Amino acid sequence: MQFELNKNTISEIKQLIISNDTVAISSMLKELHYADIADILDEVDFDSAIIVFKLLDSEISSDILAELDEDIRDKILQALSAKEIAEEIDELETDDAADIIADLPEDQKEEVIAHLEDVEHAKDIVDLLRYDEDTAGGIMGKELIKVYEDWTMFTCVREMRRQAENIDKVHTVYVVDDHEILKGRLSLKSMLTTSTKTPIKEIYNDAVISVKIDDKDEDVALIMQKYDLIVVPVVDEMGRLVGKITIDDVVDIIKDEAEKDYQMAAGLTEDVEADDSVFELVKGRLPWLILGLIGGLGSVFIMENFEGALSKYKALFFFTPLIAAMAGNVGVQSSAIVVQGLANNIIKGSIWKRLLKEVSLSLLNGIILSLMILVFGQVMGYEFNFTLSIAISLVAVIIIASLVGTFVPILLHKKGIDPALATGPFITTSNDIFGIFIFFYIAKLILGF
Amino acid sequence: MQFELNKNTISEIKQLIISNDTVAISSMLKELHYADIADILDEVDFDSAIIVFKLLDSEISSDILAELDEDIRDKILQALSAKEIAEEIDELETDDAADIIADLPEDQKEEVIAHLEDVEHAKDIVDLLRYDEDTAGGIMGKELIKVYEDWTMFTCVREMRRQAENIDKVHTVYVVDDHEILKGRLSLKSMLTTSTKTPIKEIYNDAVISVKIDDKDEDVALIMQKYDLIVVPVVDEMGRLVGKITIDDVVDIIKDEAEKDYQMAAGLTEDVEADDSVFELVKGRLPWLILGLIGGLGSVFIMENFEGALSKYKALFFFTPLIAAMAGNVGVQSSAIVVQGLANNIIKGSIWKRLLKEVSLSLLNGIILSLMILVFGQVMGYEFNFTLSIAISLVAVIIIASLVGTFVPILLHKKGIDPALATGPFITTSNDIFGIFIFFYIAKLILGF
What we know:
3-stranded mixed sheet; elongated; 3 domains; mainly alpha; homodimer; Tetracycline Repressor, domain 2; MgtE N-terminal fold; about 450 residues
């Protein structure tokens, strides 16, 4: 069974919608995976999306709701009554259900919750609404299989059958004590190979890694990656088992985190995508461009101040874009290495060692690049003193730019600010200004204008 | 049980190594998770790492080997004999085992393989060595539970017990026919709730998503993310079940992919990390800086050509860093949006619509920024015509830079080249040169120097 969604399928569906052939659409949808149907809804216009959505069984339509892009989901939810939404929610796992309800308008929330059929399910969902979106509590689900340490294997298997509803998504059976405190886990192996009379207490594995309910979602992601976990139990302040987080939810966090850093480095405020509207794109891009503009105007000021050099050393002014570019590039490189190092937790050791390393590597890079400048100066027939002053100031600019790029993110990180802020336009712009100032200042010292 | 590794633990271990108290070290290591011990080995010096490594049980030391940074792992392997390496490999799952063997020197490979105890395991590993690292075959493991469709549930459970060795890591039971062709999967639920006489044929679920053995690892990652899969079966050209890939292996690919894009955008050749040596860091950073230098020298050339404007419009030359910065920033923004869009498969629709969108959004950004320039010019007391020429050329530069930033990555992608190449220094440098040329050219047209 191959679930490749191709363009033909989409245009076929579009045709069927136009000819209003609901029978054919329904039979086509039955063949498709919900994630593919979600893709189709993202592709077609909104009215068609509603037509398709209403043709689906609630079992599959709920999965699609959880999968859809937020803007389309919001539109579809607006077209549904509170009762209809509640029917969808009834089919969903608690974590997805809570995410959807959290996004509803305040007044609709209660109405939808009141319409939920399964009271236990509703309780779990309401419970989850309490937690911050970016904590373990905010991403966990309530669905899990737990057994009490006093039970025998026989009770345990019977209980698992009772809870068998969601059981094919359960990867671990957790063991708790009378107070619901997490004690360990039970492997499938021990369940298959132990006699039914054995008490759970004797066979469970007490080496279980858990996260706390108020742990940051990024930390949960790091822990799951480090220990190669596919599912991790969540405990409250008392150590009681309250939920579980599966790796597929964490994959999205890992990806979002990486994309956020990337977007910041590229000078985009968070979450701008190629298919956003022109207005949203301007909103995402303009702030950083204004920052760049202010930086550029700063350079204009600096050069006005060194105007005196123009008569004798006009070529100095031809080198400013080069100096600015080098300062910017070096700064971005340094900050990117630090930001990734901080994210992967490998920035350790003394600050002096890091300083020494950064200076020596910049010195090496700077000297190589300066030699190239000297060759270029010879070829162009510039005065040697003039090229030398450019070469020397280039080395200085590179060293200082790399120090700024290295230590600004470390400082931000220490102050609890996202160090990724320091990559991209912010570091480029400040390094541009620094760079140009240092360049002219050193040139002035050497050439004496 | 909390597996937090803190600095105290590390310094304690270091102390114990100095005082050569192997008993205390051993008992301390017993309390730690293998991923934490791997962290410790990354931290201490190499001789200490070897001491610690040799104190470990082979069951845990093999997991640590699979977890270690490549450079430290290579060093440790060099300190082991082929027989010792084979003992470690014997304990590992086939995918990790194959990865380690693949990295060994050619002559050592065969020797290690010859020392492997379990012939079946060795066969599987040798099998895996055939596949490219970046394909489904290269990342899959051979460990899986498969049952034949003709079996009854009774045979199935008996067989699962036999294979119970690795069973607590198995999440799905696959069903194959006599020719080993993948037919479907068996849920834990149906196993728990079906009588032992039921034939597998009647109860298995045939909706199973699989990947082909030569699928790209990035595509496997996309499929697993899209369909929220925790494990995916791998089939060969005939549809025969040959292995499985779990999400924790794919998480690393997703992360590497995102980090690679980020590093390219920041002007780093792949895989430079904060704790690499100065030499490696120079190697990772210098090439892009040289590119930037060449770009900067290009700007020098251009300005030499417009030197005539110096006498009358010297302030024009003060604006070049601003123009270059804006061209660079806009280009990076555009390319980053396109690269992310391509990675997430949301760059669709006609090229003309995208062109129109990019031009209109750049026009909007450009006009707002130009108005700010005009105000600045008034404040500085520049001639109005002069500021106007800067404002107009800024709009032109922004539009062209955003078009270059948008369409270069799309073009590269169409040619099968990684579009991320077009972000960062490459696009910045070319946009710097373009930008400065356009700037002077338009200024010349308007001001007529």
